[in-house]
Amino acid sequence: MTRFSIALAALVAVPAAAQPLTPAEVAKIDQIVTTNLSQSGVPSAEIAVVRDGKIVLDKAYGKANEHLPARPDLPYQIASNSKQFTAMALLLLEDEGKLSLDDPVSKYLPGISEGDRITIRQLLSHTSGIEDFWPQDYMFADMNVPTTPQHIVDKWAKKPLDFQPGDQWQYSNTGYVVAGMIAEKVSGEPLLHYLQRKIFKPLGMTSVRDQDETNTPAFPAPYTRYALGPIRPQKPPASGWLYAAGELSMTAADLAKWDIARIDRAVIPADDWQAQETEVKLNDGKGTGYGLGVSLRTTPRRIVSHTGEAVGFLSVNTVYPDDRAAVAVLTNSWNTGDAFTQIARQIAEVILPPPAQDAVATAQAARAHTVFDQLRAGTLDRSLLTDNANFYFTPQAMADFRSSLGPLGEPTSFEPDGKPVLRGGFVIQGYTIKYPTRTLSLSTFYEPGANGRIEQFLVSPGS
Fold it and tell me: pLDDT higher for 435 or 450?
């Protein structure tokens, strides 16, 4: 076995707070993580799984650095997953009456390009137009030298805007540096101290620290890969570069405590949670898929999430509020593919129930199957059809449907093709009908609603 294989085999677990996961589910999650690490070469992963609003699995896999096995009590750099904490700090300061998210940036920090037209809300939603100081997926030359938030602002936030505030969505780490400086100015204390006092201590998140503190041999080390070459240790950046845009290190379990607070609407006022999870719209009314420090998705289920990329670290934190579930995955490598998101997605498939099917679509699919069975048998309940569809099914059409479909017998599967669309006042839904030796395509039009009659029912050879 290679050194990596030996490290990968050594798993370290912390007793779970509750254990609704079955042994088979835990074994499946172990397989998911170890397989993805082995295939990608990522040295280690730390995961925390929330189900029913409780941490049910907290585990580490692989090697944290060349001399340290991964352990679930080791904080990893979570990078841009820090943004949701920075944004929440600004929301809490608004509660304290110290600012408004709709205040212009110039009220607190002079010299920002068009700062009188950029609001704090636009900083937090990546709609400010301020140029991103770190769009690259590698460590650029300046990062070899220690920096300060003011230096980042002076070099990048005083350039001409990339677009007028509110016109576009464009990720900007610089915008979060500006936001962090505003938070410190109005609170009168370092951002990390404020977060410790208002969030981390109340939630028992004891592992949290500045990521610069974790660039030592006592913590997980960063790794990288060049093209398809070997996994190599990655030189960390000099201090100060991530600040409010991504300065935090913590364990997966502590990140999961934050997720549980989100699910329960705990510690933080409920309206602040809601504000963070409300999609910000552009000036033209188009959606951004982003709130205040979090990405938002509503299909097939509601998801609040974010990813993080620090030098040599990748992470993803995904919350399923309506399912009272969450998955946090922290890894210590970059340029090694998407193992971190694959792990999170595959774990979610294990712990979440299948998404509930739309009741209308389910009813329509059942009706389509019923009509198909009737036609291959030579019968037809015409009350299920519109007048136009009844006109289509002449005696000749009925005879041809029966003679061509009847001999095929019972199909092995009858599945919808994609999502329904609207056209001409009807709901359009295709289906694929499979037999052992051939495939058919079915095109259906329905009147809207669960009891909508069928307007079109066309069967043709499938590919």
Answer: 435
